[in-house]
DNA sequence: GATATTTAGTCCACAACATAGACTAAATCG
DNA sequence: CGATTTAGTCTATGTTGTGGACTAAATATC
């Protein structure tokens, strides 16, 4: 049920309206904010005052809109006080970043580690060290970290902060949030979900409407962004594109099914064991016809799965990330062709394919971005956090 | 952007909180409402007073909770004043219903007409007559109709109230809202979407969480309900289950693709032309092995498509409606088996299959229910409508 | 260069709403 | 019958946004 609306909720709501407007439509004067939000100038002035005091907004010089009249003072999001920590555990690396309220990446670090060889406890200990170092660094920059999100390659229970099963890591029933023990609130989330959000906030997402972001790795995941928010499904396991059935009589998959997309377009289907995607790209660039053929087949299978996804979920755009980003020139054509052939007659608008603009850091950035998003959506909850903050 | 929160919005929000609580948790005393919503007794009393004055709530006798102390007065939704009109245009009938605020069906009427033989203008004129008759009848019952939703078998543009293309009706670019010209606000929506909502409000939906409702007819549509609201996708065309690819090399489909679910489990794939579903059911009940075999094949194909849907969209339950309701005993087994085989290993919870409890009226009822839902979600917008209302 | 005009931002009296707690009402318990 | 308990109302108060008057700072016009 929607919570009762009290006076404080009204206040919090309007703070969010003003901060959200600053976030979306750049620097604005108080007068313009009043115009855009429908609030009075008086109210906007008070709210902006509070945001500035909390270090979430700053004045940034006079602005003449060309017309006559007294010039206004531009107000914009401030990146000087509030920040977020993004962490990522993946098969062969740990990553961390600090992002400030204006979504500038202030620190970004990656550690190559073979996490399959280590126990979950060792991996989490390593992540804690990395996270703690990032928090120190953030403090050194004068930043107060509002929270932390951890990206994991597998389905997670966000309520308990634990992983039921992450086959790629070899994890089963690992409690992450508790074990991490960082001095900020911690949430965990699925890597594919966060990569989609990373694309939304740090890639081409702002110019996209609703989109489906495909994270091709060993498994193939997808994140669906609708109205600026993730669609998670009833249990948080939506977006398992890798196990969409491409051909019911196809080869057996590790999920127990047959003919899943993963068997046609996952990394293991494209690259012989021991090699990486870069090897494949090199062969493709050298003009190896067998490699091109394999990619075309994978692209066609991807196109079938995406057709199905479009029919069910109706995204506006489809962004290919992960291994499909470097393979885009060889994969996207056949995929788009399959979609056009199957969808073109029924739909006025067949979704466009696009490459991911964010590289391998999409999930890490999306993790931090999710905290920032939360702050912007409810600044009232974070005013205290930062009021007594560092220098300023 | 979320609208600015003004005083009136606070009021409207709390009215919705109270009315929503009454809707979900049955008759409650003012004290219990205060407890449940977090509002004070004073505030609840004022809000309840307004709701009673507007005819949206009534007091209904004293209540002793068994304990001692002064007994409270139970307050519940009132069905005596506010109502909604649901209309449906389908291939071979028109239907209409009047539903009151407490979601009781007050009038329900169906007219058998061959709408393929008539022009869209004639069909809409017929619907207008039916709708106007229902409005008269509602007025006779002392009901004020807050709005109307029209269910159509095809994708609609809800903003303009028009149908781009409804192949089953043979319609192309028909503006419905404008042509209908009823003296209440009119919206149009897709039949499969509304059938899902019909199941939510008039079937087993209340006990379900998030669910996918499959409407099998000549085409196969689906509506996904998440958090009590429809998931529509970017353009409102989500849920086209009928064109999910079951087998990429399968038979050609009228959509231009190949191997769509519709070709395996649509009405035309199960029943020879000229016959209806009832004929098939009769053969099945008589023990016709060929018919049972055909249903099993259709069920298996449905299971493959549903597996894909579960992977992408993660519903909690799947409700089979339309032609799959009478065929449930013969179709659900193979479908469930396919899903279990493909999903059981990965997922802790494989969605349950269930039969629709609402019959062919699901979409009509869902249409009216959507208006009721809107009133309950924002009673403030409808207070005036009913304040000067009929007798009382 | 002085004055009018225009736009930005602040100030102050006021209105809308929810709150807290005192108060009245109506039941059961002893 | 009085004590206790719970429901509901009443009154004074607090928080928040509003509207319009006011000040500030620019350009346009004469």
UniProtKB/TrEMBL annotation, chains A, B:
<comment type="similarity">
    <text>Belongs to the ROK (NagC/XylR) family.</text>
</comment>
<dbReference type="InterPro" id="IPR000600">
    <property type="entry name" value="ROK"/>
</dbReference>
<dbReference type="InterPro" id="IPR000835">
    <property type="entry name" value="HTH_MarR-typ"/>
</dbReference>
<dbReference type="InterPro" id="IPR036388">
    <property type="entry name" value="WH-like_DNA-bd_sf"/>
</dbReference>
<dbReference type="Pfam" id="PF12802">
    <property type="entry name" value="MarR_2"/>
</dbReference>
<dbReference type="InterPro" id="IPR036390">
    <property type="entry name" value="WH_DNA-bd_sf"/>
</dbReference>
<protein>
    <submittedName>
        <fullName>ROK family transcriptional regulator</fullName>
    </submittedName>
</protein>
<dbReference type="GO" id="GO:0003700">
    <property type="term" value="F:DNA-binding transcription factor activity"/>
</dbReference>
<feature type="domain" description="HTH marR-type">
    <location>
        <begin position="18"/>
        <end position="60"/>
    </location>
</feature>
<dbReference type="Pfam" id="PF00480">
    <property type="entry name" value="ROK"/>
</dbReference>
<dbReference type="InterPro" id="IPR043129">
    <property type="entry name" value="ATPase_NBD"/>
</dbReference>
């Amino acid at each position: 049920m929607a919570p009762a609306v009290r006076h404080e909720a009204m206040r919090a709501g309007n703070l969010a309206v003003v901060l959200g407007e600053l976030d979306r439509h750049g620097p604005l004067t108080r007068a313009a904010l009043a115009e855009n939000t429908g609030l009075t100038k008086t109210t906007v002035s008070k709210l902006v005052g509070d945001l500035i005091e909390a270090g979430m907004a700053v004045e940034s010089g006079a602005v003449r809109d060309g017309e006559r009249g007294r010039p206004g003072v531009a107000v914009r999001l401030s990146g000087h006080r509030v920040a977020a920590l993004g962490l990522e555990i993946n098969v062969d690396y740990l990553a961390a970043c600090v992002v400030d309220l204006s979504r500038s990446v202030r620190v970004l670090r990656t550690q190559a580690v073979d996490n399959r060889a280590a126990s979950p406890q060792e991996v989490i200990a390593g992540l804690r060290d990395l996270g703690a170092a990032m928090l120190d660094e953030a403090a050194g920059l004068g930043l107060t970290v509002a929270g932390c999100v951890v990206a994991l390659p597998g389905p997670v229970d966000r309520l308990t902060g634990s992983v039921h099963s992450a086959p790629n890591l070899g994890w089963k029933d690992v409690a992450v949030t508790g074990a991490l023990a960082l001095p900020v609130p911690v949430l965990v989330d699925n890597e594919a979900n966060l990569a989609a959000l990373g694309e939304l906030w740090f890639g081409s997402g702002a110019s996209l409407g609703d989109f489906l972001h495909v994270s091709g790795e060993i498994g193939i995941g997808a994140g669906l962004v609708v109205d600026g928010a993730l669609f998670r499904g009833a249990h948080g396991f939506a977006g398992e594109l890798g196990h969409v059935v491409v051909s019911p009589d196809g080869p057996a998959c590790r999920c127990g099914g047959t003919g899943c997309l993963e068997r046609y377009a996952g990394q293991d289907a494209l690259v012989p064991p021991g090699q990486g995607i870069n090897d494949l790209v090199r062969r493709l660039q050298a003009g190896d016809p067998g490699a091109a053929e394999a990619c075309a087949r994978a692209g066609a299978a991807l196109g079938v799965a995406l057709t199905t996804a479009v029919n069910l979920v109706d995204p506006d755009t489809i962004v290919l990330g992960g291994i499909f980003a470097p393979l885009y020139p060889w994969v996207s054509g056949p995929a788009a062709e399959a979609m056009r052939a199957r969808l073109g007659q029924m739909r006025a608008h067949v979704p466009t394919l696009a490459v991911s603009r964010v590289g391998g850091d999409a999930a890490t950035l999306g993790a931090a971005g999710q905290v920032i998003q939360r702050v912007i959506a409810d600044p009232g909850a974070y005013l205290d956090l930062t009021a007594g903050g560092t220098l300023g």
